[in-house]
Amino acid sequence: MNAITFDVEIKGARKQFGSNVVLNDINLEVKQGELLTLLGPSGCGKSTTLNLIAGFLEADQGDVYIKGKKVTKVPPYKRDLGMVFQTYSLFPHMTVLENLSFGLKLRKVAKTEQKKKIDRVLELVKMSGLEHRYPRELSGGQRQRVAIARALVVEPELLLLDEPLSNLDAKLRHELRAEIKRLQKEIGVTTIFVTHDQEEALSMSDRVVVMNAGKIEQISTPTAIYNHPETEFVFQFIGKSN
Ligand code: ADP
Ligand code: MG
């Protein structure tokens, strides 16, 4: 039996920018292999929470643990995670292939092995055959697929997705929702997904964390959030989508 049951833990995190308390006593546990979504209105602290986990920000109080190890002082590049942002984070002067091999080269993965890994992730995100395109030659949805592939190709312990679908049109958003969900289960990578879209959160996640003004309102399965909102805020916020 593995003694560690959580891939990520945040204990008592507090973060303030000037006099603005952005996170107030955040406690969160992310289980191995689950897709957990941080859901809440713009400005509630979702990205800040994700950035604490990624290591781009440090909490004023509290700690972050990954696989049971305190990482509060560990820099992002040593945290073994893949991250995708709302705006396209591909290198514009590199082809799809070069974007994908970048992280593998850094990790000194052998050439033949690189090709195998790249072929596999491109197939997973349905981008096979487009290896030699530049980001400007791809649609928004294709770029986000490549960004997800680039995050996954190094086989990270943890996948962090910060509103990766928010810039896409409705049809594509629905399509990619289903794909991310399928992909996540297929690979089994522990994933933290951020969105302000109730429907997106409820349709994709194993569990949802509803946030409001720097605090966690409720952590439950989508069904429980929908059927048994525990606070007035959750009731109102989830109700909005209907
Ligand atoms: P969300 O991702 O839920 O929209 P954020 O975590 O980005 O919210 O931001 C939460 C709050 O913190 C907002 O009020 C935002 O303006 C503020 N904030 C975020 N980053 C910074 C920063 N680097 N400096 C000052 N204020 C910030
Ligand atoms: Mg954000």
TrEMBL record:
Top-level taxon: Bacteria
GO molecular function: ABC-type polyamine transporter activity; ABC-type quaternary ammonium compound transporting activity; ATP binding; ATP hydrolysis activity
The enzyme's E.C. designation: 7.6.2.11
Organism of derivation: Cytobacillus depressus
Keyword Nucleotide-binding: yes
Catalytic activity: ATP + H2O + polyamine-[polyamine-binding protein]Side 1 = ADP + phosphate + polyamineSide 2 + [polyamine-binding protein]Side 1; a quaternary ammonium(out) + ATP + H2O = a quaternary ammonium(in) + ADP + phosphate + H(+)
Class in the EC hierarchy, top level: translocase
One Gene Ontology cellular component annotation held by this UniProt entry: ATP-binding cassette (ABC) transporter complex
Family affiliation: Belongs to the ABC transporter superfamily. Spermidine/putrescine importer (TC 3.A.1.11.1) family.
Protein name: Spermidine/putrescine import ATP-binding protein PotA
Record text on subunit structure and interactions: The complex is composed of two ATP-binding proteins (PotA), two transmembrane proteins (PotB and PotC) and a solute-binding protein (PotD).
Keyword list, A-Z: ATP-binding, Cell membrane, Membrane, Nucleotide-binding, Translocase, Transport
UniProt function note: Part of the ABC transporter complex PotABCD involved in spermidine/putrescine import. Responsible for energy coupling to the transport system.
Domain ABC transporter span(s) in chain numbering: 8-238
Span of the entire protein shown here: 1 to 242 of 366
